[in-house]
Amino acid sequence: MNKIPVITSAEQSDQAAKKVNLLGMSKDELSAFFVSLGEKPFRATQVMKWIYQFGVTDFFEMTNISKKLQHKLHEVACVVPPTVKYKEFSQDGTRKWVFEVAGGSLVETVLIPADDGKQFGRKTLCISSQVGCALDCSFCSTGKQGFERDLTPSEIIGQLWVANQSYMENVPPTERENRVTNVVMMGMGEPLLNYNPVVAAMSLMLDDHAFGLSKRRVTLSTSGVVPKMYDLAKDIDVALAISLHAPNDELRNELVPINKKYPLKDLIKAAKSYVYDENPRHKKHITIEYVMLAGVNDSDEHAHQLVDLLKDLPSKINLIPFNPFPHAPYGRSSNNRIHAFSHILNQAGFVCTIRQTRGDDIDAACGQLVGQVADRTRRAKKWQESIQKRQSHHE
Ligand code: SF4
User: Is 385 a catalytic residue?
Assistant: First the structure.
């Protein structure tokens, strides 16, 4: 493990507060900003390339804009990513950043490289969308911390900017290139409950003048905010994953409580609509995330129920071995159990993968995105109380 402390930059936040932060602005917003300065709108795409493709924040390094405009931008604008509180780079190539966002809370971002050992191989960045999460899935450590607030577009896209920046050190600006190849909106928070900022940030991920990622390489993962799934299909063309985790309503109500509001029948209908009704050329399947909890959702019967539930939905299933966190009420299914479960899905014709656990040495594995949340929901306190009660009951 290589833990690198980074000094919190209060100056950076001050700068962002006084000037207009261009990070996170859409192309249209940036064009309007340049018009308001008496400039031509095309300046927006020039500056976007500097910011997102070359990681440049200093306007004086943007060599294709005039000296006069460089000075003007220096006076009124800035490019300020969220402050990195600290970062950890794992031996296996996994990288984790903890950001301190306005208000002092911490959120995490994790980069997981493919296991192919290639320097320019697949690198998937798991991005957070909220500080904490209001949804309280019973197996999720983020959910136990409660919810503080939504992240802004610049705080969301800034996570990707910083991850790419980590590969750009000591490289001249115009020779830099973005290394993150895939993004999953699967970190802290439920992205569809922070809809507009998430869609704005994903638009920059796809925009050729910004990060230019292919739409198949940007995935939003939802626990099932059904009405927003229909909106998403209309507003942006990205891949969709569903945190399913249970094959029947009774169990899902317990594991993913939003299921009480949007039960499986509605969720699967919305997922089918996402694949078939809107832009069918691009949305070929849904990824189903299923955390394997020993003795809870991992029996043969559950696997057969899952086959039945997904039979008409083009889907790929990703089984996630549970990563226990302190006082978690569940354990991880055995490898044999996970393989037996996977075998049933494979036999039924599903493509089913088992997620490799990565970055264990830096607590970056799925479900371990532990931040420090100023909990407006008081859930963290209630959770602590319930643990104490459980402990005194056993004494
Ligand atoms: S699993 Fe996702 S939606 Fe559920 S509590 Fe955790 S972060 Fe929120």
Answer: no
